[in-house]
Amino acid sequence: MGKENGNQMGNDEIEIDLLEIFHILVGRLWLILSAGLLAALVCLLLSSFVLTPYYESTTRIYILNKTENAAVSYSDVQIGTQLTKDYAELINSRYVLEEVIQKLSLDVEYKELLKKVSVETPTDTRIVAITVEDADPIQAMETANCIREVAGSHIQNVMDIEAVNVVEQANMPTEKAGPSVLKWTAIGGAIGVLIVCAIIIVRYLMDDTIKSSEDVEKYLGLSTLALIPAAADEAGSKKKKSSSQVRSGILSRRIGRA
Fold first, then answer.
1. Phi and psi of 16, rounded to 5°?
2. What are the tens digits of pLDDT across the range 190-214?
3. What pLDDT, on a 0 to 100 scale, did the predictor assign at position 6?
4. For residue 36, which of 49, 149, 168, 193 is within the disulfide window of CB 3.0 to 4.6 Å?
5. Distance CA 223, CA 194 (A)
6. Cβ-proximal residues to 92 (8 Å cutoff; 6+ apart), any chain
7. Alpha-carbon distance 248 to 217, whole Å?
8. Which residues contact 172 (CB under 8 A, 6 or more apart)?
9. Do residues 84 and 123 make contact, with C-beta atoms less than 8 angstroms apart?
10. CA 57 to chain centre
């Protein structure tokens, strides 16, 4: 019997009542929503007034690989399309970016500038988009244009192609690209809600106190015969207290008369 009861208790301890957890979360809904709103407000203030905004400027080039004085064939287009990833690697190469740093006298290292540069090659095209992000919109535009010029010469020398044509020069960004206030606010609210829900669930799982007769039957495997209301206990304690006070008063009177 003892082993069976012990095994039953051990098995019951690892059971999780999802419905009960749901009811607990609903009961703490005001706390969960308050935490989510508070976290969202903090992230809103951070993204609006604390974090440094950055701007993006994009320039595009078109690379055509063909022989001299020959018309462009379909094979030229296919080969050029397959080589766009190679062009992207050349643009992000140390040679190109370090030369850009020297030309513009930038106070950054190669790895720092590399993090600010992104190269995209749309599918089935030979157009390469070079995007630079920076806290200064003018600096972002100048850096993108300089990378395009240096990378164009480098691609011509390495790949032995005829020309790198400019499709679009870098633009002057007028609106910040990030941080996104809406995105930060939504993520902050979601994180706040998840943290509070996790705390509530952990506290529920760690709480092994007996709160009702159902808990006694569930965890101990015993049947309850009777329940003593807390109000009755309080009333009983008050009666005992008042009777003891009366007795002490009568005793003190008798001592005084004696």
1. -120, 120
2. 999 999 999 999 998 887 776 666 6
3. 45
4. 193
5. 38
6. 114, 117, 119
7. 44
8. 57, 137, 138, 141
9. no
10. 26
Given a contact cutoff of 8 angstroms between Cβ atoms, the answer to whether 43 and 185 are in contact is: yes
Q: What are the angstrom distances between the C-alpha of 248 and each of 89, 92, 245? A: 96, 94, 5
Can you tell me the distance from the alpha carbon of 125 to that of 87, in angstroms, rounded to the nearest whole number? 12
Helices (H), the chain: 2-13, 18-27, 29-45, 74-82, 84-91, 94-104, 110-116, 137-159, 181-206, 213-215, 230-257
Tokens of 62: 């078109």
41/46 Cα distance (integer angstroms)? 9
CA–CA dist 14, 94 (Å, integer): 57
Tokens of 87: 């062009």
Contact 144, 170 (CB under 8 A): yes
Dihedral-angle region of residue 69 (phi above 0 means left; psi in -120 to 50 means alpha; beta otherwise): left
Distance (Å, whole) CA 117 – CA 252: 93
56, HSE (Cβ side, Cα atoms, 13 Å): 12
Mean pLDDT, consecutive 10-residue segments, the chain of 258 residues? 44 65 91 95 92 94 63 51 76 95 94 94 81 95 96 88 87 89 94 95 82 64 64 52 49 48
Residue 74, amino acid: Y
